[in-house]
Structure prediction request, 345 residues.
Amino acid sequence: MGAREMQIETPYLMFLGDVPDTLAAKTAYGIADWRPDWCVGQLRLPGCAADLGIPDLTLDEAVAKGCRTMVIGVANAGGVLPTHWVSEVVAALNAGLDIASGLHVRLGSLPEIAEAAEKNGRQLHDVRHTTETFDTGKGIRRPGRRLLSVGTDCSVGKKYTVLALERGMRERGLDADFRATGQTGVFISGRGVAIDAVVADFISGAVEWIAPAADPDHWDLIEGQGSLYHPSFAGVSLGLLHGAQADAFVVCHEPSRKAMRGVAHPLPSIQQVIDLTIQLGSLTNPGICPVGIAVNTQKLGEDEARTLLQDLTKEHGLPATDPVRFGVDGIIDRLLAEFPAGSAA
Prediction:
């Protein structure tokens, strides 16, 4: 069974609201980074601290430039739509745009939005919610290879890492597909399931559905979520790990963090994440192993970043890189060394 396809009309007007920082708009940044040709402009409210570096447009200007859908490009705690944004969404519907959202709240559950959509004949897309019915995970080995990105925290680059790996592996003639497990990834790839909106009992089964049996040398590159150490999201991370039956994993890390995002808990070490991932992942794949470390060095100067990556490579015996800044060739080389073509059982 394949993952569902979206029917969201492009190009997009990216709605950022008045988010307090760039991480709160990570959905918008992800789409703009990986599908820039779909993003015609952005709509920001006073006080917005995010900027995609694309034109600021009014609704009328967006429609005149051919925008078809306004994407609510934010990710906040609880996935709620702030009350003062509702009127902006209604105005966009009245202007002739469809609305797509990755928030937990269903757009149609808000009467003003539902009424405006019906009146204007516009579509409401709740990307976080799927119409699929999933089985519980079975943990039975299935053909194909799978890599999962895991993290020392949430929002550290797990999606960007597997997207970079997909691009790099395909450039080298390898059979690899990005598998989206979050709303931004679904927007980017046009398929997948937002795992954090799946009922807990079915998380691992949903991942088995996202990355089904495949040719022995095919790689599914599965987008990780949260962290096994995060008190809010560890349940989702564990379900992902078991459903992925990952052969390989990459640890993603942001070195400037002092505490995990949204809580007071300190970040675990990279080694702690490696050890726990192997311990827990061995339940469904006893051969699971790490193949690299992906570090978000955006806040570091180039020399400082290169020194850190060299130190991490030496400390852990794994290739460490910033996938966006320095590429992923080292990780791909390690992956091929660990899992040469034709070696699948």
In short: The chain has two domains: 12-126, 145-338. DSSP finds twelve helices and eleven strands in the chain. Residues 12-126 form a domain with the Rossmann fold fold (CATH 3.40.50.720).
